[in-house]
Each structure stands twice: as C-alpha cells, then as structure tokens.
Amino acid sequence: MAITIPDEMNAIVLDEPGGPNVLHLGKVPTPTPKPGEILVRVEASGVNRPDIMQRKGLYPPPPGASPLLGLEIAGTVVAHGSPVAGTDFPAIGSKVCALTNGGGYADYCAVPASQSLPWPEHYDAVKAAAIPETFFTVWSNLFTTADLKKGETVLIHGGAGGIGTAAIQIAKAMGAIPLTTVSDPEKGELCEKLGAIVINYKTDDFVEKTLEYTDGKGVDVILDIIGGPYFSRNLKSLAMDGRLVIIAFQGGAKAEDVSLTRLMTKRLHVTGTALRPRSTEYKGAVAQALKSHIWPLLNTGVLEPIIHTTFPLAEAAEAHRLMESSSHSGKIILTHPDQN
Length: 340
Ligand SMILES: NC(=O)c1ccc[n+]([C@@H]2O[C@H](COP(=O)([O-])OP(=O)(O)OC[C@H]3O[C@@H](n4cnc5c(N)ncnc54)[C@H](OP(=O)(O)O)[C@@H]3O)[C@@H](O)[C@H]2O)c1
Known about the structure:
With 340 residues, this protein is an alpha/beta fold. The protein has two domains: 8-131 and 276-339, Alpha-Beta Complex (Quinone Oxidoreductase, Chain A, domain 1), CATH 3.90.180.10; 135-272, Rossmann fold. Helix content is 30%, strand content 27%. Strands 3, 4, 5, 6, 7, 14 and 15 form a seven-stranded mixed beta sheet that branches. A six-stranded parallel beta sheet has the order 10-9-8-11-12-13, sandwiched between helices. Helix 3 (132-145) crosses helix 4, helix 3 crosses helix 9 (280-293) and helix 6 (206-213) packs parallel to helix 7 (228-237). The longest helix is centred in the middle third of the chain and has 14 residues, at 132-145. The chain is globular. The structure holds NADP nicotinamide-adenine-dinucleotide phosphate. NADP nicotinamide-adenine-dinucleotide phosphate binds at residues 48-50, 133, 137, 157-158, 160-164, 181-183, 187, 201, 225-226, 247-248, 250-251, 273-275, 323, 326.
C-alpha cells in the first residue's frame, strides 16, 4: 500500500523564545529527506533539557538543522532520501528510534539513516523514544571521551534525570561502579535500585561522601551537568589520572577558586562536549557502538529507560513545565496522534 505523505504537518512551534507558553501546535511544511536521510512518521518523541534551552533562545540549532524542537523520536520509516555510499537505509515500514538533529516535536521528522536504530525487542514507541538522546550522550561521554573502564568508579551528577538514569545503568552494565548525586530520598531510592551509590547533595557534602566511598582515593570519572559551582569540588573528588567531562552548566558557566595545583599533581583531564553539533559520521559511530554493546542488553531487559510520564504532543508546554520543576525522575515523553 502506497504511503501518502502530506505537504503540511502538525508540529510544536514557537513564535519567539520564552517560557513554556510560547509552545503551541501549528502547521509547518513536511520535511523532505536529504541524501542519506530517512523520513519517519513520528509516534513518540522525548523531551530533554536542551529543548528547554532552545525554547529560551539559549541553544540555537546548528546550521542546516530543523528549527523545531525535539532531539529524539520513535516511529515508522515512510520515505528514503537519495542513497549515500556506505549508508544503509532501514526498510520502509520498519520501526526505528533515532537521534535527530532537531525536529522531533512533529508528525514527520527527517533524520540521517545512520542515526537510527531498530526498536529494541518488545518495545513500543514511548519506550523506544526514551532512548536515543540520553544513551547516545552517555555512551559518547563515558566511553569515548572519558574512556571509563570496567572496575573504575564514576560520579554521575543528577542521577535521577534522563541522562542520570541512563548513565547509572549503562556504567553498571559495563562493569563500572556508579556513584550519583540526588536532591531527595525518593530519587535516591530509584538510583539505588538502578545500581548506584547515592549521595544526597542537599544534606551531605558530595566531595566528602565521594572520598569516603572510595577510601579517600576519589573517583576515576565524573559526568557533570552543573558546571561552575561544582568545578573545584569535582577536581577534589577525582582520583589520580581522573577525568572530568562537563556536558552542561545548569549552575553557571563560570568557575572560581580553582586550584591548578590539583590539576597538575593529580594529572587530571578536564573536558566538555556537546553532542548535537557533532558530525553525522560521529553520531553514526556512536549508533553502531550502542547497537553492539547496549542493544543486546535492551533486548533482554537488563537495561531499560526509566519513564516518568507521557503527555500528548499538543501539551508540550506542560511537559516543559514539569521538566523545569525538576520533580520528575527519568524521561518525559510526548505521544503523537495516530495519523493513519
Ligand atoms: N552536552 C550534551 O551533549 C548534552 C546532551 C544531552 C543533555 N545534556 C545536558 O544534560 C543535563 C541533563 O539533561 P536531562 O535531559 O537528563 O535533564 P533532567 O532529566 O531534567 O535531569 C537534570 C537533573 O539535574 C539534577 N540537578 C539539578 N541541580 C543539581 C545539583 N546541584 N546537583 C546535582 N544534580 C542536580 C536534577 O535532579 P535533582 O532534583 O536531584 O537536583 C535533575 O534530575 C542537562 O543540563 C542537559 O542540557 C547535555
């Protein structure tokens, strides 16, 4: 049966940067897949902190990317762009989840085929959409950038968030020992269940606790989302040859009171990365690593995305309000209307 693709589609649009109120359902042209891309009829899409930043006008899409929000989707492949050497297209009609370059909050999304993966076995759209952004980010940072190894310790800040719940599970599954920071006992309980040693950063000093749990040695790797206010304390929490990877600065981008002596005497490595502007080739390589190392664990239920709740696409503003309240644990997913 031929698939009819409309010229126009529903999407969450924003007329100007601002609070959640600027998000509303509108009509925009349906994207056409470029060479090497697939067009996916979106059934669910994930909400991520970078979407909040983009909505506020603080995280503009990279050149050439869709101006629409939405960094991850799950749905059905409905069209292929022209072929590109070395890129395999998933079949028309197959179910995929994908890391997008933007444009997930819409009926249709064009994504590089190499950034898509099949739904894990027995998954539905909601569970499949909860994987790409966090799993690609965590894999890329913990294993490519920080070279986290089996038996090493890793401190994951914000353990109950989307990134945090994925990072704890992936680190543990790969044989590392995850420690994590949370703001309350309920979030702590969830992270403990996922396999982390939990530190309540509201009631305890995370530096003291990290050193206590590692017999004074410090952790081998830190995945940080807080930035400036944690920088100096992160350096104190690292072991010799420790690696600090900063993927966000929710607390601010300026670090003060930094001891370079600590950096030198402990031979520390400090870096930061953003996944979205990286090349299609890089993201495709991460997809392949996930397929080899992580997909078998998703297929057998060893790993599972933690889903806090879902909202219909039209209620994207509500989903953003919830994320900004930080009262969620795990992922917030938008469900898209059935377009059959
Ligand atoms: N660089 C990249 O490529 C990249 C890619 C994706 C995401 N990110 C970044 O990663 C971060 C997490 O994204 P997400 O989608 O997982 O968001 P999320 O689900 O909202 O998680 C953020 C978490 O931060 C925690 N938090 C807030 N203040 C904290 C503090 N002072 N110490 C420790 N934890 C704290 C919150 O929980 P509590 O209630 O426990 O504080 C919350 O669980 C965001 O900043 C996002 O921009 C970066």
